[in-house]
Design goal:
120 residues; alpha+beta; Jelly Rolls; 4-stranded antiparallel β-sheet; 3 helices; 8 strands; 22% helix
C-alpha cells in the first residue's frame, strides 16, 4: 500500500526514491487512533507535534460563544494538520475527528530538518 502523504504529494510533483524514503522515515512515528467525534487537540492547549492523517476525516474548528462549532477546514488521508502549528504558544483552534481517524505524530525538529534538507 502506498503511503497517504506520498500519494497526496505526487498529485503535484513526481517524487524520486530518495524523497519517498525520506518521507517514510519522517512518518515512522507514534501512530494514534481516535474514535469519531473526538478531539485530537483543543483550543488553548500547547501544540507539540505535527499531525499527519493516515485514515479517516478530521477537521479544524472554532468553538463559538453559543456552543456551536464552526468547521474551518477538513483533513483527509495524507493531510498535515497545521504543519506550522508548533510555532504557536497555544492552539488558537481545535482539531477533531469526524470519523474514526488514524494519525502519526511528527516531532517539529524532524519536520523542520526535512523541510530544510529537501525544499521540494
Amino acid at each position: 500500500m502506498t503511503h497517504p502523504l506520498i500519494v497526496k504529494l505526487e498529485q503535484f510533483e513526481h517524487l524520486d526514491d530518495e524523497e519517498r524514503r525520506a518521507l517514510l522515515a519522517l512518518t515512522d512515528g507514534r501512530m494514534l487512533h481516535y474514535e469519531p467525534r473526538s478531539d485530537i487537540i483543543r483550543e488553548g492547549e500547547d501544540p507539540r507535534v505535527v499531525r499527519l492523517v493516515l485514515s479517516g476525516w478530521a477537521c479544524r474548528y472554532k468553538q463559538l460563544p453559543d456552543g456551536c462549532r464552526q468547521i474551518v477546514a477538513f483533513f483527509l488521508p495524507g493531510d498535515l494538520c497545521d504543519h506550522n502549528v508548533f510555532v504557536l504558544s497555544e492552539m488558537d483552534h481545535s482539531i477533531g475527528t469526524l470519523t474514526a481517524v488514524t494519525l502519526i505524530e511528527i516531532a517539529p525538529a524532524a519536520f523542520e530538518a526535512m523541510m530544510s534538507a529537501r525544499r521540494r
